[in-house]
Design goal:
The protein is α+β, with helices and mostly antiparallel strands and about 80 residues long. The protein has a single domain, classed as 2-Layer Sandwich (Alpha-Beta Plaits). It contains two helices and four strands; from the N terminus they run βαββαβ. It binds iron/sulfur cluster (2 copies). The site of one iron/sulfur cluster has 15 residues, from helix 1.
Length: about 80
């Protein structure tokens, strides 16, 4: 399973809650505090590192407030063949 995480820019977030509806891991919640703009911003609550970096939250966010980071696993190296000539 791919590993990922997100950051949410609370200066952009208007608290529409759309991202909370699409996360398959249900790890985006709404803050109980207010941003400088007067909205309750979305926050990531992921103590068990369940985020897969699937991009659904960032894709649906109308305010481009979410940045997704996804772990890229190094490709398996294929052993090179050595020829004795
Ligand atoms: S990238 Fe996917 S799993 Fe991670 S918080 Fe966003 S919707 Fe959820
Ligand atoms: S979809 Fe975007 S604007 Fe709406 S709550 Fe989530 S981060 Fe905030």
């Amino acid at each position: 399973m791919a590993k990922g995480t997100i950051t949410i820019d609370e200066r952009r977030c208007k608290g529409c809650e759309l991202c909370t509806t699409v996360c398959p891991k249900n790890i985006i919640h709404m803050a109980t505090t207010f941003s400088a703009r007067g909205y309750r911003p979305a926050i990531l609550v992921d103590p068990n590192e369940q985020c897969t970096g699937c991009l659904l939250c960032a894709t649906i966010c109308p305010d481009v407030a979410i940045t997704v980071y996804r772990e890229i696993k190094p490709k398996a190296t294929t052993p090179s063949t050595t020829r004795n000539t």
